[in-house]
Amino acid sequence: MTPELIVLANTVHTLEERPAGFEPVQAVAVSGGVITAVGSRLDAQEWQAEGTQVLDFGDATLTPGLVDCHIHPVFGLDLTIGCDLSSAGSLDEVRSLLADEAGNADDDGWLRAWGLNPNAFGQVPLHRSVIDEVSNGRPALIRLFDGHSALANTRALEIAGISGPQQFDQTAEVVCGADGTPTGMLLEAAAMELVQKHIPRESFESRKTRLGGLLRDFARSGLTGGHVMDHSDETSALLRALEAEGTLPLRLRTAPWCMPGSAEGEWSELARSIGTGGRRWSIEAVKLFVDGTIDNGTAWLFEPDLYGESTAPFWPRPEEYAAAVHYFASRGIPTATHAIGDAGVEYVLQAFTDLPPAAKAARAHTVHRIEHIETVPDELVARFKEAGVVASMQPTHCTHYSLADHSDNWSTRLGQERAARAWRCRDLREAGIVLGIGSDWPIAPYEPLPIIADAQLRRRTGHPEQEPIAPSQALTALQALEGYTSHAAKAAGLWDISGSISVGKRADFTVFELDPLTTSPDTLGTSGVLGTIVDGEVQFMLDRLG
Question: Is 344 exposed, middle or buried (0-12, 13-18, 19+ CB in 10 A)?
Answer without folding.
Answer: buried
